[in-house]
Amino acid sequence: MWNNKVLILFSIISCFSPKLHFTDQNYFWFEMEYQNIKRKNVIYYPSFYEKVNKNIINQKIHTFPLIISLHGGGGSFDSNLILSKGRLLELKERYNFFLLLPEGYKNQWNDGRNFDPQIHSLDDVGYLKALIKYTIENFPINRDKIFIFGISNGGMMSFRFACESAEWIEGFASIAATMPKNLKNQCKPHKKLNILLIHGTKDPFVPFEGGLVKVINRQRGEVLSIEESLQFWLNKNQCSKTERIKTIQKEKEIFTEIFEYECYEKKIKFFKIHNGGHTWPGGYQYLPEWLIGKTSKDFFADEEIIQFFLK
Question: I need a labelling partner for 139 at 20 to 30 A (CA). Which of 71, 115, 216, 231 fits?
Fold first, then answer.
């Protein structure tokens, strides 16, 4: 049984990335201790919250969505801000939600692939639940509007959280990630979820067709194909086989098909990026194309995810 005692240490930090010069001052930085390990976390809140916070009565009446964004393997709590070129901060102002950016232990999440014994021993699902619980207890969060998404390792962690603790969220999304193979037989979500998947057909790290995840020739466990991952959740959500398809293309050699499925109560959407790589669509090309593949300019992944969650 894990020791789930949580220690919160509040502090304020001035900025995240000197390269992008984030100037948004509406955040709290804190550390949470879980399983005797302290990890960094950041909560960004919309400016509207400060207006509401001045009036205790309104604070109790008005609640905000909570969106958790998980970095990829080797990243840190601010990685997704960089990948989105700061748009996540713009979106939390436009849609008035709290943005929680946690940090995995040694920059990794235990998403269920079990390739690293040290990471495999961590209860990251429990850690994320502790973070959600803390946020609910300390901020006016709408419990019916809690969502999680991530890229790569963070996207796989979103799959795992949905499998094991679906009752804590209303939906999840993944970028450049498919469902870890080890999760399939034990994935029994307690409720249906809204789901958005984004994946490139030429992802060199997380293969579109499934199989071994390889990062610079190092094996990182096995995953299902994106089609298997999609079909698994279509079955869980009792979706019809009918899909609505839209195609968008803004540059040569790369285009995106969008699939929308009719489901019982919830919705599922899939962005299939033809010739897309292990990248954040519309975002920062963090490594050269020869290594991670092409970044699609057809759409902004962050904006599509937030709109999907909140509209």
Answer: 71
Which element (helix H / strand E) includes 212? strand 211-215
3-state secondary structure at position 235: helix
**Conformation bin of residue 135: beta by default, left when phi > 0, alpha when psi is -120 to 50:** alpha
User: pTM to 2 decimals?
Assistant: 0.91
Residue with tokens 């989105």: 84
Measure Cα distances from 238 to 87, 175, 186 in Å.
Answer: 33, 23, 18
User: CA-to-CA distance for 201 and 299, rounded, in angstroms?
Assistant: 16
Closest to 245 (Cα-Cα) out of 255, 254, 232: 255
Candidates 17, 3, 148; CA nearest to 76 is: 17
Give the DSSP H/E element, type plus range, for residue 136: helix 124-138
How buried is 293 (Cβ within 10 angstroms: 0-12 exposed, 13-18 middle, 19+ buried)? buried
Whether residue 1 has pLDDT greater than 70? no
Q: 170-185 pLDDT, tens per residue?
A: 999 999 999 999 999 9
| Three-state SS at 91 | helix
Pairing of strands 37-44, 98-102: antiparallel
Give me the pLDDT at residue 161, please. 98
Q: Which two tokens stand for residue 85?
A: 């070129």
Please tell me the distance from the alpha carbon of residue 57 to that of residue 96, in angstroms, as a whole number.
19
Domain ranges in the chain are 7-310
Between CA 101 and CA 128 the distance in angstroms is 11
- Write down the residue that tokens 């020739």 correspond to: 217
Give dist(CA 231, CA 263) in Å, integer: 12
User: What residues pair up with 44 in beta bridges, in sequence order?
Assistant: 27, 99
SS (H, E, C) 265-283: CCEEEEEEEECECCCCCCC
Q: Longest Cα pair distance anywhere in the chain, in angstroms?
A: 57
Residue located via tokens 């300390």: 138
Q: Which of 161, 24, 37, 40 is nearest to 102 (CA)?
A: 40
Q: Would you call 135 helix, strand, or coil by DSSP? A: helix
